[in-house]
């Protein structure tokens, strides 16, 4: 195909953030809003981005321009923590973390030993992401390698930027969900060889959390990390007080929960720790020093009664934070709804989450937390063309509030507060239309 045939042109109002920041006050100066803009895409990447008037002469007459004026085009949302095999158990009633795992999660995850079932649910899961405008996610599979094969196969069909891994879990769960240190190593290794950097797919070494891994298994996770230093590490940390007490019982020789991961070499760049609701001072410092990232999962933390994540402290400590929906303890795939809850979580702690900060965390900031800001997160030339067309006035109430909001920041805040999957008008992955709201 000639370059001209693979060129695509999108017109509309565009909003993105041009650079990563260390303080939330810097976000506004990095914000870019182009009321009448043009995005040119070639071979799935941003070829040119700017004002319509400045760029329109580059559009060959044979190209049909996708005209989204009246809508707002933003970079695809980044979900930094989610469990695909828990899609079918969202909204399981009544428990906090440890009981919730035993009663609801483990029986559900058992089904993913069936490769065909895993394939069906992978398709369902990806559709849910796309209809909610999420174009990149860091994803837990189950202990079964089949679950990860199924997800990666489905994601590779639309060339989605996705990070995932097989759960490593060799104790404190039902027998039917346990691997062992050796098999978890060998299975993870085979998956890394098959999928890591295969197209846009990336692998995360995924011990579920310290209580379900023996020291021998964490040593195997460390070995994988040493053998494949450019993979990711994805796990849970300090979500629930009972969980923390349990880790201290299981690993008495360690200096707290995070020290378990740290001593096995599992902190560092491309290490993403979900929750971090109850961190001690030394743990904030360790995350900061090692360049580790946090996935802030507001709907999950509220739903399981885990507690309130201290976002302000993360900024103070210069720790990268992204937003996680944490399906199925989280209650929505939708990033706008998740940001709405994030606002309330920090409001309860006397901190105000601005619309710009929320937008940052769910796009470029989330990409930064995943170590992917060089390839996704905004419309910089050369980046991968994953984006969402938002409909700011999808309901009568949204229309009313949007019309009586004057500034961009107010309009964006209303979109976050009142938005949901109806706000997602189109989703593009790799420059191609992959979801169309009907
Ligand atoms: Zn989780």
Structural notes for this entry:
There is one protein chain. The protein has 2 domains: 8-75 and 377-436, Urease, subunit C, domain 1 (Roll); 77-370, Alpha-Beta Barrel (TIM Barrel), CATH 3.20.20. The strands form 2 sheets. Strands 5, 6, 7, 8, 9, 10, 11, 12 and 13 form a 9-stranded parallel β-sheet that branches. The protein has a 7-stranded mixed β-sheet with strand order 3-2-1-4-14-15-16. Helix 5 crosses helix 6 (145-157) and helix 15 packs across helix 18. The model has no long low-confidence stretch (mean pLDDT 97). The longest helix has 17 residues, at 115-131. The chain has 18 helices and 16 strands. It has helices at residues 3-6, 27-30, 52-55, 97-109, 115-131, 145-157, 181-195, 215-227, 241-250, 257-263, 281-290, 298-303, 311-316, 335-347, 355-362, 364-369, 396-403, 408-418; strands at 7-17, 31-42, 45-51, 65-75, 77-83, 134-140, 161-165, 167-168, 201-207, 232-237, 271-275, 293-296, 320-323, 387-390, 424-429, 432-436. The protein is globular. With 438 residues, it is α/β, with parallel strands linked by helices. 54% of the residues are buried. 38% of the residues lie in helices and 24% in strands. The protein starts with a helix and ends with a strand. Bound molecules: zinc ion (ZN). The site of zinc ion (ZN) has 5 residues, from strand 5. Pathway: Purine metabolism; guanine degradation; xanthine from guanine: step 1/1. InterPro entries: Amidohydro-rel, Guanine_deaminase, Metal-dep_hydrolase_composite, Metal_Hydrolase, Metallo-dep_hydrolases. Keywords: Hydrolase, Metal-binding, Zinc.
């Amino acid at each position: 195909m000639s370059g001209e045939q693979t060129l695509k042109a999108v017109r509309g109002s565009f909003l993105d953030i041009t650079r990563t920041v260390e303080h939330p006050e810097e976000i506004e100066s990095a914000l870019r809003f182009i009321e009448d803009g043009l995005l040119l895409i070639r071979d799935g990447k941003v070829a040119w981005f700017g004002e319509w008037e400045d760029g329109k002469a580059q559009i060959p007459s044979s190209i049909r321009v996708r005209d989204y004026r009246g809508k707002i085009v933003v970079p695809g949302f980044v979900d930094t923590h989610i469990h695909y095999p828990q899609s079918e158990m969202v909204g399981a009633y009544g428990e906090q973390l440890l009981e919730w795992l035993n009663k609801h999660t483990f029986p559900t995850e058992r089904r993913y030993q069936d490769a065909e079932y895993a394939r069906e649910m992978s398709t369902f899961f990806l559709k849910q992401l796309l209809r909610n405008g999420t174009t990149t996610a860091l994803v837990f599979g189950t202990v079964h390698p089949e679950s990860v094969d199924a997800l990666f196969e489905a994601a590779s069909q639309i060339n989605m930027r996705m990070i995932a891994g097989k759960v490593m879990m060799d104790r404190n769960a039902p027998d039917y969900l346990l691997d062992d240190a050796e098999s978890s190593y060998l299975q993870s290794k085979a998956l890394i060889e098959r999928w890591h950097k295969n197209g846009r797919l990336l692998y995360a070494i995924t011990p579920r959390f310290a209580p379900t891994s023996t020291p021998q298994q964490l040593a195997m996770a460390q070995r994988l990390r040493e053998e494949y230093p450019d993979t990711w590490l994805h796990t849970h940390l300090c979500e629930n007080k009972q969980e923390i007490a349990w880790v201290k019982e299981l690993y008495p020789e360690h200096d707290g929960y995070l020290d378990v991961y740290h001593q096995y070499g599992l902190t560092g760049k491309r290490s993403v720790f979900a929750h971090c609701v109850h961190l001690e001072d030394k743990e904030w410092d360790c995350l900061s020093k090692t360049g580790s990232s946090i996935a802030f999962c507001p709907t999950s933390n509220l739903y399981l009664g885990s507690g309130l994540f201290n976002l302000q402290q993360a900024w103070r400590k210069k720790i990268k934070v992204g937003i996680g929906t944490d399906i199925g303890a989280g209650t929505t795939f939708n990033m706008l709804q998740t940001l709405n809850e994030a606002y309330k979580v920090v409001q309860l702690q006397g901190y105000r989450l601005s619309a710009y900060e929320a937008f940052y965390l769910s796009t470029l900031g989330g990409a930064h937390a995943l170590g992917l800001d060089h390839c996704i997160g905004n419309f910089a030339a050369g980046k991968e063309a994953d984006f969402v067309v938002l409909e700011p006035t999808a309901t009568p109430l949204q229309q009313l509030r949007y019309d009586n909001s004057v500034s961009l920041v107010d309009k964006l805040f209303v979109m976050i507060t009142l938005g949901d999957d109806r706000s997602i008008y189109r989703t593009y992955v790799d420059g191609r239309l992959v979801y169309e709201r009907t």
